[in-house]
Each structure stands twice: as structure tokens, then as C-alpha cells.
# Entry
Amino acid sequence: MDFIEFLKDWLSTHPTTVSILKYLVWLLFVIAVIQVFRRFLKKRMPETSSRYKAQKAVEIFGYLFIIVLTISYFTGNIKDLTLAIGLFSAGIAITLQELFLSIAGSIYIFLVKVYTPGDRIEINGIKGDVIDIDSIYTTMMEIGQWVTSDNYSGRIVKLSNAFVFKGPVYNYSKDFPFIWDEIDVMIRYKSDMELAKQIIISVAEKTLNDYTAASKKQWKDVVNKFYIEDAVLDPTLAITLTDNWVKFNLRYIVDYKKRRMTQHLLHDTIHKKIQETNGAIQLASTTVEVIKIPEIKIGNNK
# Structure
């Protein structure tokens, strides 16, 4: 009891010291909050540049808050401390808006099922297969770039989940895991056009039979689920007359992961079938044929 009485007397007779001690307590609290935010960002943001910028922004807002706290405290306007806390919280929210958007994006992805691991998507101009989704990032195995067709580039890409709110998300596999593709076959004008049609269509129907049958079953579910018109899923052939050749455009549906392989099978099989016609059908090209070189006489004119 004597110590408590002594402490009360000391506090009443040393108001300045008490005020400074309270200020130091507030200062230590703010510094502790800044460090907690810094460590949180260090764990949740693996990308070095973004983590560095976010940590620096937290430090700046923390120092600004300390300045406001100091001015408010020593000018006697400690009642404005709640305003300072509000400003500090708003600053943190602005600084970490990308982080908050990423967390909200991850919740949206899981609830709406925009995409799931294993889906092939294109988002923010990056295409790849989703291999992981966490609370901040979507991780993809990249496709394309310097590699042609739908092959892996070998790079693993981490993309902020916030991008689901900033642009379109192209999903190659959700609901309807098929895509339409086309190839062009150039035929010379003197070729047997009817035979060329029969060869291309028969090769397409035989090669694509499994994809066509599977896609028809899936397409019924798509039509029932969405407001969309029915589509032609069988291979179709369109012919265009050009100045140099007849262009046969084959349009067909294929599994989104088998596009490159299917193109190879179609081209290879059609080429072999055309060779078996013994010249009845000839492939066209842009090569230039020189028929005759004019004679040039060089002599001395006297």
C-alpha cells in the first residue's frame, strides 16, 4: 500500500514525465504495428519488387503517423488521436490495396470457380495451365511466347489474383474442353476439285471422329446452361478462289490440349492421300516457274 501511495504521489507531482512515458508507449506500439505489417508482407508476397515497395510504403505511412501522433500529443490535442489512427488505417488500406484485392480475388475464384488447378486459361495476356492457387497468387505453367503452338515454354508464372477483377479470363477447359481450329490446303486449278473435297472431308471425319462425338455430348450441357445458339460441330469445308490457287479451308473441333498434334495428323494424312492420286490433285505453292529465258545477243556495232 505504501508503494501504491508513493506511486500516486509521484505521478501527481511529475505530470511531464508521465506524459512522456505515455508518448513512448504509443510510439513503441506504432513501431510494433509497422514491424508486424512488414513481416506479414514478407511472408505473403514472394515477389521481391512488390514486397519491397509494399514494405517501404508501410514504413512511410508509419513515420507519417508518428509525426501526426507527436504533434497531436505535445500540442495538447490528444483527442485528435483517433483521427490520426483513422488516417493511418486509410493509408495502410491504400498501400495494400493490391494485397486486399488479391485476397478478395482468391475468394471469388474459389466461390465462383472461375478456374481450378488443371484448367488452361489466358489472363492478362498470359496463357498457361493452372498448377496452383493460393490466397495471393495463381501459379501457371506458361504456354507460347517464343514457342510455337500450345507448347510449354518452361517458365512458371505467378499472377496476382486481383487480375480476375481487371480484365477477361479466357478458360479453355471449363464447361466445354474443346476449341475450334482451322487448316488451309492450297490446290492447283487444274486438279480434280471434287476428289480433293472427298479426300479432305474423309480424312477429317476419320481423324476427328472421337472429338466430334465427345464434343456433341458436352455441347448439349453448354446450350442448356447458357443462353447460346446451337453450333455445327462436324468438320466443315469452305472453298475460296484466289489468283494463284483454290484454298480449301477445313474447320473442325478438337480437344484443347490436342490442337498441335491434330494439325500434324491432318496435314500428314491429307498429303499422303493426295500423293496417291498420281497427279490428279496437285498442291499449290508460291514458287516461280521460268518458262523461257529470252536470247540476248551482244555484238560490236561499228
In short: The first strand starts at residue 120 and ends at 123.
